[in-house]
Amino acid sequence: MTLKSPAGALWFYRLMTQNPGIKNDLVNWFVRNITAPNIMRVDTPGFVTVRQNYRGEIINQRNVFFSEMQLAGFESALVEEFGEEGKKIAYSIGKNFGYAYCHCFSVPQLGIDDEGKIKDFISFFSAFMGVTWGEFLDLKYDLKAKAVELGLGDHIVCRRNGLGYMFSSGDIAGGWQYIMRDDTVEGVQTECIGRGDKCCKVICAPAGYIEQKGHQAISVAARAQFEVDSTYLEMNRPRPLQYSKASIKELIAANFFKFENNQLTFHDDRYCFTGIELLYILEQFAKDDERIGRILFKTAFDQGEGMAKEEKSNDCSTFITDILSAIGFGDTLISRAGGDFQVQTNYFPYLATYGKIDYFYFRGLLSGLLSGFSGKKTELKNFRTDVSNGYLKLELY
């Protein structure tokens, strides 16, 4: 096999082969179809991108790495704060994310594309996600019934809290609703490793089908979508950084992040590859309800503070800049004015709704990082945005 990107291919090959539960044909598929042609780029400082959509169009779809502990803590806090409504909020976030990501990725749809393309995409999805979010132990579907049933191993987030509304039933249901073009499609997680089961099982189908199977699903119709237009392409175009040269690939080589057992970790916290659609949908929910905003800020703060306390021996501004660059948040400069911290991030992930959110997650993450390093609680409560230079600049203070 001739590889166009041998270093990147070897990196992912080592990751996959460390987990004997993943078959060699899946490893080879990932190297051949994703790493070798540079479809997924994790070697560009400040940017984590998927270079092409499913139809082969160049889009440089922007992605970031989220902390699994933060996402699990956020979901758990929603349920604790809102009760049953919190489950619905978490499910709605996940479902809208799955729907929006499929829209940006130009996934084939029933009634528009032929069924062969949909079947091909399902194979692509199960392989791709099977080596980034966990194993797909079993997958069966019926396009006439608009139903899919999945068995998942070591799946992200729900293994931590036993809930699974965002990252098991929710996001998969959102994607399946998009593919089936049916607003009645819902998802339900019937088994979960985080609840003591041997694996996670999810059913996505029209609500009536799920009820016939003896399960009750939350009812939410996903609506979120963002356009990958010329503005998106320009705003998210990878550019050379001024303050950092760090990518995930380089930080693994430097032993900051680790690959073990098919997981990317930083001090035992797993990091999850997601589209920036999730970031913006989280922010939209936080904007609409101040209680969700507080939860999002606090869980991001806890993530940042924990990272900083583990790395107290490192230089604050260098460490923060490099970590944020590696996980896809652009180019960050930390400075002080009158004793107060100020943060400027160039090339922050852009979507068209950038002016309608309050950046709870990023403010919380930076506040926690700065607090952990300085030993003094810092909260970045204010922000400014600027897109006049053809990219999103975010200032926090």
Automatic annotation (TrEMBL):
InterPro entries, alphabetized: NO_sig/Golgi_transp_ligand-bd (IPR024096)
Name by which UniProt lists this protein: 4-vinyl reductase 4VR domain-containing protein
Protein's organism: Candidatus Iainarchaeum sp
